[in-house]
C-alpha cells in the first residue's frame, strides 16, 4: 500500500489499496490523564480478514512510548513484532485474539494539535485524519470500524468535566481526589472519529424532542466566561436536527449530542460521534463580538458537523482517497440547510452566489496549479494536504449535479437507497454514484469522470437563430486543460441549465427538439456528454437572449460572447437571480481586464457610463433584496481578475480595481448615501436575514463612500464606529477608516480608532483576530508592518486562528503588498512557513500554498519566489506536509 525511495517522501496510491489483515470488533480504552505523561491502556478484540492478502497485524503509531503488548493476556515476545517507520507489525497472530496495548504520551508537548493535546490546561483531541495513532498503536484507517467503550480518569479539581463519544454510562469518585467517567458509543466508527475532552468547562444544555417523540440532551460546552455566547450555536443545532428530519428523514441516533469549543484547533470543527469539537470561531457569538458573517458561519458549520452524523459517521469512507464521499456530500447538505433557513427565493440565490464566489476564487485557482487533484485523488504524500476546496467545494458541486439531473424527489430516493445499502459501512464514491443511478434508472457511468479527472472544464457556447423556421440553436463544446499527471481528458457529463429571454425580459416557454412531450418549462437542463453537441429550440418567434448555466448548474468556465447590451438585459431582467448577478460580474470583469491592460500600457484610465448606469439602476431598485444589490455592487476580487491573465501583475490589477471603485464612488455618491441611510437598522441587534442584508448593503455603501477623500464621508464612518451597537457595524466602519486615503489628520484619527478597538476588546480573542486580520489586509500594510505586528504581545504563531488572522491574511488576501517588487513578502513567507513547520505542520503546509503558482508571475518575481520556495525546501527536518507542497510547486 505504501512505496518509498530514499530521495522522495512516502507516497500512498489509491490503486495499491489492500484491505486490512484484521478487523477490530470492540475497543476498550482507559486514560489516566496527565499533561506531562498520560497513560493509555487499549484492549481490542480482533479477527482475521480472510479477504486480505495482509497476514500480519499492522498498527500505526507516532510519538508513542510502548509500555506493554499482550495477546490473549500473554506478553508478545520481541522476536514476534517489530516497530519501523511508525508501523508496529505483529507476526504469526491467531485468527481471533484480544490485543492489549499500553502506551505513554505527552499531551503538553503536542503543538501539532493532532492526537491528544493540551489547550489552556484542558485536554482535547483531533484524530482526523491520522491523529489517533498519536494516542495508541492502532489500525488507524477509516475502513476499520469498531464499537468503543472509554474510561477517563483524572484529577477532579483540575478536570471536573470528562467527555467522550456516545452515551455516559457511569461516573464517580476515586481515591486521591480523582474521579472517572465511562462512555459507550453503541455504533461502530473508525478511529478518526474518536474524541476526548477533559477540563474546566461549563455548558448550556437543553432537552430536545425529536420528531419520533424521543427526547435527547443537547449540550454546548465552553470555558467559563463564554456561556453568554452559546445561544446561537444551540439554536443552530436545533435547526439542524429539525432540518435533517424534515428534508432527509434522518434522526439523531444517540441520547445526547455535545459541542465543545476550543481556541487551539487546526480546523473549523470535527464531527466526532456525539462529541463534536469546534474552533471557538464557530461557536461563540453575541452582538458585541460577532458579525453577521460570523453568525452565518456558526449556523453553517454547526449544520455541517451535525449532518456528518449520517453522511460521514454512519456511512464513512473506505480510505482517504474517498474523502469527498463524506465532505462533498455534507457541504452540499449544509449549503441547502442554510439556503432553506433563509426561506426566500432571493435568499437561496444569495447563498448560491456566495458559494460559487468561493469556488471560483479558490478552487478554480487550485485546479490550475501544481496541487490540482481530482475530487477522488489517486495519490498523496500527506493526507492533511488534501483537505482542500476541491474535496469540499467542488465535491459539493458534484453532488449538486446529481440533484440537478435527478430533481428533488429523485435525489432523495438516491439518498434513501444509499443509507439502506451502506449504513454502518465504509464505502467508496462509486457506491454513492451507484445508489443515485439505481434509484433513478439513469446511466451515470460517464459521471464517474467528475471524480477521476482533475481540472475545471470549459464549456464554449455558440448560438444561431433562424427567423424563417423560428428555431434557435445552441452548440455546446467542452474541453479541460491538462493538470499534473493528466494530460488528456475525456468528455464529462455536464448539466447545463438554460433559459431564453425575449426583448421584454420575459422567459420563453421552451420547446426542445426531440422532447417526448411538449414542455411548459422556462428552464431546461441540457446534458452535454460529448465533445460537441447542438441543441435546437423550436417556436422561437424572435431572437432571444440566452441565460446559460442557470444557478451555476455545473462547476465549469462558461465561454459565450455576450454583448454588453445582452449582459445589461440579463442584469435588468433575468428571472434566474444567479445569472442576473453573473451578468453584472461579467460587465465588471470585462472592464477590470481592460483597465489593467491600460495600467500596464501607461494609458489613461476611463470607466464607461453604460456600466455605471447599470450599477446605479441595480443599487436603486428597491424591488431587489438588499443582499442581492450588495452582491451585484461587489466587484470581482483581485484574485479573480488575476485568473484572466496568463502573466499576473498584482500592482496593475490593484490599481485598476481601485480606480473602478473610486470612479463608481465619484459618480454614484448620492445614490450610495441614499442606500446607506435607507438601510440603517436602529434598535436591538438581530442576525436575521433581513436585518443582515440591510447592514450588508449599508456597509458596502460606506466602504465605497470612503474611496473618495472627503471629510464628510470620513466623519460618517467615524460616527458609525463610535456609535455602533454591534460588531458588524463597528468592524465595517473601522475597516473603512483604516483604508481611507485622506489627510494626515484623518489618518491619525483612523490610527486612534484602531487602538481603541484593541483596548475595548483585548480580552476577546476572536475579536483580536479580526483586529489583526484587518491590518493584514489593509492597503498600507507591507511585509515590514506585518513583522512589526508579529512582535505585538497579543500575537502568537502557536494558535492557528491568530496565525491565520495576520500571516495568512497578508499572504493570501493582500496580493499587491505581498507581491512587492523587492521580494520582502516572499522572505516573510519563508520565515513564517519555517517557523510554523516546527510548531504545526498542517498550518505550515496551508500557508506554503501561497506560492504554489509562482510561475504565473513576471520573471523578476519568479526568481524571488523560487528562491523562497527553495529555501523552505532546503530546511532541515521539514515535515512531509510542507515538503509535498513546496516540492510540487518547484517541479511545476
TrEMBL record:
Matches recorded under NCBIfam families: pepN_proteo
Name of the protein this chain belongs to: Aminopeptidase N
Single biological process term from Gene Ontology: proteolysis
All copies of domain Peptidase M1 alanyl aminopeptidase C-terminal, residue ranges: 564-891
Reactions catalysed according to its record: Release of an N-terminal amino acid, Xaa-|-Yaa- from a peptide, amide or arylamide. Xaa is preferably Ala, but may be most amino acids including Pro (slow action). When a terminal hydrophobic residue is followed by a prolyl residue, the two may be released as an intact Xaa-Pro dipeptide
Record's function text: Aminopeptidase N is involved in the degradation of intracellular peptides generated by protein breakdown during normal growth as well as in response to nutrient starvation.
Required cofactor(s): Zn(2+)
CDD domains in alphabetical order: M1_APN
Similarity-based family: Belongs to the peptidase M1 family.
InterPro entries: Aminopeptidase_N-like_N (IPR045357), Aminopeptidase_N-like_N_sf (IPR042097), PepN_Ig-like_sf (IPR038438), Peptidase_M1 (IPR001930), Peptidase_M1_dom (IPR014782), Peptidase_M1_pepN (IPR012779), Peptidase_M1_pepN_C (IPR024601), Peptidase_M1_pepN_C_sf (IPR037144)
Keywords: Aminopeptidase, Hydrolase, Metal-binding, Metalloprotease, Protease, Zinc
E.C. number(s) listed in UniProt: 3.4.11.2
Keyword Ribonucleoprotein on entry: no
Residue ranges of every copy of the Peptidase M1 membrane alanine aminopeptidase domain listed in the record: 233-450
EC class (word): hydrolase
Domain Peptidase M1 alanyl aminopeptidase Ig-like fold: 455-561
Domain Aminopeptidase N-like N-terminal: 39-193
Pfam families associated with the record: DUF3458 (PF11940), DUF3458_C (PF17432), Peptidase_M1 (PF01433), Peptidase_M1_N (PF17900)
Gene Ontology MF terms in the entry: alanyl aminopeptidase activity; metallopeptidase activity; zinc ion binding
